[in-house]
Amino acid sequence: MPKRVLQGVVVSDKGEKTIVVKVERRFTHPVMKKTVRRSKNYHAHDEANAAHVGQTVFIEECRPYSKTKTWKLVEDQAAAVATAEA
């Protein structure tokens, strides 16, 4: 089964090897037919402490690192763009 990959914005990098990522999803409300935005925070493992607040990053589900940490940092968007341009 493939692992889910989500894109979000880092809202906290205070923890050691941990970041908090806000992932926003949009959907059409079933009754009102209006676009609704919902967001959720995920704790992700960042081995190198590379991500900082405000960066757009990709996170991937993985084994549990702790009680709340079941995601890991795949790459940040700036690094992905720099790699693509080179």
From TrEMBL:
It comes from the Bacteria. The keyword Protease does not apply. InterPro entries: NA-bd_OB-fold (IPR012340), Ribosomal_uS17 (IPR000266), Ribosomal_uS17_bact/chlr (IPR019984). SUPFAM superfamilies: Nucleic acid-binding proteins. Part of the 30S ribosomal subunit. One of the primary rRNA binding proteins, it binds specifically to the 5'-end of 16S ribosomal RNA. This is Small ribosomal subunit protein uS17. It comes from Methylobacterium gregans.
